[in-house]
Protein 1
Amino acid sequence: MRIVILSDIHSNLVALDAVLAGCGEHDAIWCLGDTIGYGPQPNECVERLSGHHVVALSGNHDLACIGRVDLAIFNPVASAANRWNGQQLNAASRQWLDALPSQRVVDERTTLAHGSPIDPVWEYLLTWSQARRSFAAFTGQLCLVGHSHLPLAFTQHPDGTIEQLSPISDGHVITLGDPQQRYIINPGSVGQPRDRDPRAAYAIFDTGRNTISFARQAYDVAATQQQMRAAGLPEILAARLSHGI
Ligand code: ZN
């Protein structure tokens, strides 16, 4: 099976469509949350995903947009964009988002969590010590996370030692191999990358080859920015897309 791993699409349909067009044949999509918020096309992104064979999570922005997390927790710019995203949602999109968990065990091998297996809604899993705690918080070989918008990977060796794999560049391939060799992997963000590379980030899990490959996809950033400006979304959110920050 070839599974596309997506996270943090953030209502950026132009980026999502570029990824879906560029990622090749696939059997399923796993979406790690924050499908909406920040960007200009929330309903369209939900519709695009719900038309596929998708296993999805909700993220902190999704929950804020549907009123399950207080908008006041976010900075004023994110809060304004989330309010706008929430106002755009039709009943079907709202219902789809509302039914999603923020963490789920897909099978014996794999857990999905938006932030981390310790705090699926809020934790930014970035450091070695956070990875150590997270490895203790899930069973199985693999935990896929999003939320930080940064492609990254940690591995726990069979002797228990933990290592961060870096740098994670476009095309980086992890071979899963020994089931005792465990991994926490973040594919990066489709709709608002923050690693100074404006291209959409995602990963492909090839269960036949037993690999997870990181990938980047160029998209028409200006088209998304134009939609954001037309919608009156905060300029800083449009501008950052040019720089991948
Ligand atoms: Zn996000």
Note: The mean pLDDT is 97.
Protein 2
Amino acid sequence: MKKKEKITKKAVPSGVKVVRTPQLLRGMKDLLPRDEFVWRQMRAVAQHIAVAYGFMEIETPIVEEASLFIRSIGRGTDVVEKEMYVFEDRDGTKVALRPEATAGIVRAYISHGMQNMPQPVKLWTLGAMFRHDRPQAGRYRQFHQFDCEAIGERDPIVDAELMVVAYNFLRDLGIDVRLDVNSMGSTEDRARYVEELLAYLRTKRSYLCEDCKKRLGRNPLRVLDCKQEQCAPVIEEAPQIIDWLSDASKNYFMKVLEYLDEVGIPYMLRATLVRGLDYYTDTVFELYAEEAPQAHSGEESGQDGAQTALGGGGRYDLLFEQLGGHPTPACGFAIGLERVASHLRSIAAENTASRPLDRPRVFVAQLGEQARRRALHIIEDLRRAGIVVRHHLGKPSLKAQLELANKYGTTHAFIIGQKEVQDGTIIVRDMESGIQETIDQKKVRVEVEKIMKG
Ligand code: AMP
């Protein structure tokens, strides 16, 4: 220990300030180039599926008035009470980083008069959300959601369609999905049920965990969401909301299920499913992966993955009034992309065939100033044809370039030197066997396309 101190002192001469490198904040995550493939895949599938079902893209600001979220998500929820990033901006306005997408989209719908458009207005977005959550497996403080909302129509088919979109998004990415559904009924149904639930939970208070004891006073529905083992038997015996639904709410819910049956989407009725956010009414749903993801290097263990929802949503017919808009029915969902990404990495690790196919397979190498200029043209011609190749025109040494070609995992190098510039040719080298052949420069594009098709 003493020795170490001595070395440190020696290494930093007196009078020299040690500059500390700022660290990544807790709960935040860099998306690195090694993750690029899964993120590109998720974004592409999200866009494809949203457009296919007639959703239009919207992007709302990350920073909004804090009151937007406080009023929509509700006091007494963990998101508002404990997790929101709230601060005063330089004008003294109380602002927040969005913890979810729905509230911002609803605000945009109201402020841009979208009620004058044909209803429902179907909107989708994909972006970063912020919650000062306790960092743990699958929980970050900045995370991304794929979010779809259908605003302006109350019809069970709208609810069913949103579940189909969410389900198909995950299925199209190759994830085996389980869809859990429930109904929270109308506000009146819910109020009667909460009274009943509270009476029951009070009799079981001593069996509940400390968090749930606090929830009794603030938001008893959240007890049903608790993952603590000691609360499980209490939750199992609790009264079920389905028994407290009015006939109208029950009929609405039955219709939703019939439409799901119609399109062949399997689902499970889960009586204890109540979504954490205050604005839900009627249909609520969550999506789970059938299998937990494998933990990967640089990532926390995903052991609880099977129990952690990939996404969820539901109907929120009362939110608009809460935000000062006209009564407007709506339904939506959000899927957490970090959790989806960790499943996709597991799938890719198991199945090498699903590894990045669009990774460049060709490296263009050059030797000498003339060759470098020619290489520039070749790369540019390929790029115009939509073909991406690797290169490092700044490196003069051919050996160093071929080492890079190997590191990138490219299968072929196209090499051009002084002689090839004069002959109008280029050397094609198979990186694995080392076999080389010379081809006409005019044939580069055809040859690269052949290689890419593999
Ligand atoms: P919620 O808006 O709470 O219904 O969350 C919808 C989805 O977003 C969840 O199912 C998760 O996949 C994801 N999600 C929520 N909170 C976090 C978080 N702190 N870190 C990562 N993903 C999250």
Note: The longest helix spans residues 36-52.
